[in-house]
Amino acid sequence: MSQHPLHAPWRMDYIRGLDKPAETGPTECFLCAAAKATDPKEKRERLMLWTSEHCVVVINKFPYTNGHLLIAPKAHVAELEELSDQIANDLTKQTTRCIMLLKRAISPQGFNIGINIGRCAGAGLPGHVHQHVVPRWGGDTNFMSVVGQVRVVPQAMSQLYEELMNVVATL
Question: pLDDT tens across 42-71, in order?
Fold first, then answer.
C-alpha cells in the first residue's frame, strides 16, 4: 500500500497560535477584528461574510468540514449568560440565516450547531462566545478524523468565500 501524504498548511497557523506565551503581547481577537472590518479586501482576508446589528458571521479558518461558519456577537463577551436578549436573539437569527445560505450554496444534508464554552469543552477562543454551524453530508464521517486525527476539507477557503458571497445577497 503506497502512502500519500495529506498537506494542510493552513493548520500550522492554528497550531502555532495555541497557548502563545504572554511576552508576545496581546493580540486582537479575530472575531472582534472581523466585526470591525470595513474595507472589502480586509473583509475577504478575514473571511467575514456579513454583520448584523449585533453579530458578525465568518468562515472558520480551521474548519471541521467545508462550509464551517462562526456566528459571534460583535461585543467581546466570554459567556453565553452575559448576552443581552437582543444579542442572543440576533445570534439565533444569524444562525438560521447561515443555514439558509449553506443550503442554497453547497447543499448539505444536515448540520451540527453548537457552542463550546471553556477551553476544556473545546473552545478554541474561550474569550469570545461564538456559535458553530457545521454542514454535514451522508458519508462525510470517515476514518480520517477518528484514526488519523486529520480533517479533509475538499475546497479552498477562497473558492468557498466566493460561492457563499454570491448567495449572501439573495438571503
Answer: 999 999 999 999 999 999 998 888 899 999
